[in-house]
Amino acid sequence: VHQSKLDFFCKLGYGKQDICKVLENLGQEALEDDVLKELIRMGRKPQALESQTQPSPLKLVARGSCSTSPVSNWLGEDDSDSSNHLRPIVIDGSNVAMSHGNKEVFSCWGIQLAVDWFRDRGHKYIKVFVPLWRKEPPRQDSPIADQHILEELERQSILVYTPSRKVKGKRVVCYDDRYIVKVAYEKDGVIVSNDYYRDLQNENPEWKWFIEQRLLMYSFVSNRFMPPDDPLGRHGPTLNSFLSKKPVLPEPKWQPCPYGKKCTYGNKCKFYHPERPQQAQLSVADELRAKIRVQLSLGKEEEKRNCLP
Q1: How far apart (Å, rounded) are the C-alpha atoms in residues 71 and 80?
Q2: Which intervals hold the zinc fingers (C3H1-type) (predicted)?
Q3: pLDDT digits (tens, 9 = 90+) for 289-302
C-alpha cells in the first residue's frame, strides 16, 4: 500500500520526501484525497509545475542577425560584452607592427602598446589579426622583433591568425584585410589601421560607408600609441564619442560677451552676461521705459495717499 501510494503521488510530480512525511503524519491507511489535501496545505508544488513557473533566461542576440554568426563562434566571442557601452576594437596587426617598426621590422611590441591602450580605456572586445606565417622563425627579408608577444596575445584569446599554407614550396596567404573589415562590420566596431582598404571599398558599398566612418588612424610617438582626438576631422565627433556606442554630447560652453556691461543688445545678445544670470535680458531702452513706469506708478500712489482725509 505504501509503495502504491508513493508511486501514485510521484507520477503527479511530488517529491518522495514530502510524500513520506505526509504518510508518517496521517498514517499508511490514509485516503489519497487526504494525502493530496495535506500536500497542497504544505504548499508543495509538483516538480513539473515548478519548472514551468520558472522563467527561462533571456538570450541576447547580436544586432543585425537572428542567430550567432559562425565568425563570432570561431573567434570565441563572449555575449557579456554586449552590455558594454564601448565599441568592439579590431586591430590590423600587420599595419600596426610595421608602423611601429618604421616599415622595416615587424615590431610585435607596437601591437602590445595598441592593445594596452584600448584595454586601459575599458574595451572588452579586442581582436588582432595577423597572418599565420608570422609564427615562423624570422628571416632576413622579413625580420620580426619580440615574437613572444604574439604567443602571449594568442593565449589571451586576443590574437587571431589568418590562414596560410605552402603549396609546392610557395606560400599561399589568405587576404587578412577581408577578415578585419568583415569582423568589424558584423560586430559594429572600429577598425584600427592606417590602411584605407580601397579595394574592399570598391568591392562592397556597405563596407565603403563603414570604412569611411569607422576607421581609426593612429601614430606612434616615442613608443606611445596615439590616436587622434578628432578621428573624422575637426567638425566630427570626439574620440570618446567615436569609440562609444552612444554618442557623447559636448557640454554647452557659453562665450562671455565682449562688450561686457556696455552691451546694448539686451535679450537679443547671443553671448553670456555673468552680471545678470537671473535677470531678464532687456535692451537699454526697454530698461529705461520699465524704470519710468515704476516711478510713475509710485508717484500716483503717493498722490492718492495725500488726497485721502
Answers
A1: 17
A2: 251-276
A3: 777 877 777 776 66
